[in-house]
């Protein structure tokens, strides 16, 4: 262990000495994220955790990987790492002077699960480019559940033991053992999308219902074929009266660009989307005037060859309207839908909205007038203060002159008295 610490110390010195003369402010940006070869593990299982860099290349780096040592035991042991309690210190630099920088997978560690529960892996560190410049890094953590199904179901039963909603058919948790699903899970969102490489044959799905007595059926997640696959999760309420269907459209391909069905731009003329547009978010809403008959949407795909189809922008009715923006990737079969709920106000709601707008404008104008008045008062106070300072200067000057004259007169009188004598 002593030799290992010395080696780590030497490596750190080498990294610093190689780059200290060239280090400047970060000019590159990248993302360091953590991947695991398994998402669902049991106690005593082993798992591989890899550290990865994307959108940048690094010629030297040092990082600390923090893990829950009550849940995991690190099984790896090699020269460029050092373990201290729940922290792994890892250092690397390009011995070719930056000519062979790294990207993608940077390091891999093996862990053994010790106890059931949720454990988080967190990484922090410094990464340098081949020119010795510090790379601005966004770090992403990773959560692993040990004994996931058993522990989460037990926890769910405890938390919702009083939940007797026999009509509840919502999911509470939806997770896959593969990264990249979009959008992020929400019980009210029923369409999800994922792209995977050709070497993946099946996807493990963890689906937990809000009501522990609901039944869940999962299909389509095995024997995945090249092209488009659909995973279907059907949740049926305990009383059989309600059914929710969650779909995951999975594209299996080695050509990611041809399967790109993401939007790069989504905007509506004169209105702001809620939430703000994000390519991985697929559900939005806006509220419009009751006089509006049509909205104008500007939508551009990330891939120039992708086709964008917009439906539902015309003949808006009072209440909720659904606008669908469907993006078809260049491969012709990968699709992604962006949904916009457009709520058109009725006459009463429009009047209330206009009154609120008028009130807000009046408040804004009042605030502006108050600010302007305060500014004028401050300006007048400043002028008065300046005038007071000038008057004080005049008074001080006049007093000084008078004192000076009195002193001169006293000296003169004293001199005359001496002269007469």
Write the layout of secondary structure elements.
Layout: H1 2-19, E1 28-36, E2 40-41, E3 46-58, E4 60-66, E5 72-74, E6 81-84, E7 87-93, E8 102-113, E9 117-128, E10 135-139, E11 142-146, H2 148-159, E12 171-176, E13 191-196, E14 205-209, E15 215-219, E16 227-236, E17 243-252, E18 263-268, E19 283-288, E20 297-301, E21 307-311, E22 319-328, E23 335-344, H3 347-420
Q: How many strands appear in the DSSP assignment?
A: 23
SSE string: HEEEEEEEEEEEHEEEEEEEEEEEEH
Bin the strand percentage: 35-45%
Number of helices: 3
Helicity level, as a percent range? Answer: 10-25%
Question: In which order are the strands of the major sheet placed?
Answer: 2-11-9-4-7-6
Level-1 CATH class name of the largest domain: Mainly Beta
Largest sheet: 6 strands, mixed
Averaged pLDDT: 83
User: Which descriptor suits the 3D outline?
Assistant: extended
Domains counted in the coordinates: how many?
4
User: At the third CATH level, what is the topology name of the largest domain?
Assistant: Immunoglobulin-like
Distance between the termini: 105 Å
SSE-based structural type: alpha+beta
């Amino acid at each position: 262990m002593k030799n290992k610490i010395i080696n780590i110390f030497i490596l750190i010195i080498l990294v610093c000495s190689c780059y200290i003369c060239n280090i400047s402010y970060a000019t590159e940006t990248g993302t360091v994220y953590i991947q695991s070869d398994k998402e669902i593990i049991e106690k005593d299982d082993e798992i591989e955790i890899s550290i990865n860099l994307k959108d940048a290349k690094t010629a030297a780096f040092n990082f600390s990987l923090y893990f829950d040592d009550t849940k995991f035991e690190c099984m790896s042991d090699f020269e460029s790492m050092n373990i201290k309690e729940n922290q792994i210190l890892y250092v690397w630099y390009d011995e070719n002077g930056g000519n062979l920088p790294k990207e993608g997978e940077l390091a891999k560690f093996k862990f053994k699960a010790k106890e059931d529960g949720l454990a988080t892996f967190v990484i922090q560190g410094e990464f340098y480019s081949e020119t010795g410049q510090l790379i601005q890094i966004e770090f992403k953590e990773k959560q692993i559940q040990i004994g996931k199904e058993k522990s989460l179901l037990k926890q769910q039963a405890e938390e919702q033991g009083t939940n007797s909603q026999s009509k509840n058919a919502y999911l509470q948790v939806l997770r896959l053992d593969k990264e990249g699903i979009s959008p992020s899970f929400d019980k009210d969102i029923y369409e999800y999308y994922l792209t995977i490489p050709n070497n993946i044959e099946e996807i493990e799905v963890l689906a937990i219902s809000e009501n522990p007595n609901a039944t869940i059926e999962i299909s389509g997640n095995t024997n995945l074929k090249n092209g488009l696959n659909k995973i279907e999760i059907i949740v049926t309420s305990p009383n059989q009266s309600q059914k929710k269907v969650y779909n995951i459209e999975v594209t299996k391909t080695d050509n990611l660009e041809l399967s790109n069905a993401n939007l790069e731009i989504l905007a509506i003329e004169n209105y702001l989307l809620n939430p703000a547009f994000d390519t991985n978010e697929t559900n939005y809403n806006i509220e419009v005037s009751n006089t509006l008959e049509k909205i104008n949407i500007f939508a551009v795909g990330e891939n120039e060859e992708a086709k964008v189809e917009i439906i539902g922008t015309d003949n808006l009715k009072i209440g909720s309207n659904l606008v669908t923006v469907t993006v078809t990737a260049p491969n012709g079969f990968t699709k992604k839908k962006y949904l916009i709920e457009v709520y058109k106000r009725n006459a009463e709601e429009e009047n209330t909205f206009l009154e609120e707008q008028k009130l807000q404008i009046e408040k804004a104008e009042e605030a502006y007038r108050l600010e302007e008045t305060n500014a004028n008062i401050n300006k007048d106070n400043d002028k008065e203060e300046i005038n007071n300072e000038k008057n004080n200067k005049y008074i001080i000057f006049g007093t000084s002159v008078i004192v000076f004259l009195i002193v001169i007169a006293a000296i003169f009188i004293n001199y005359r008295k001496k002269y007469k004598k």
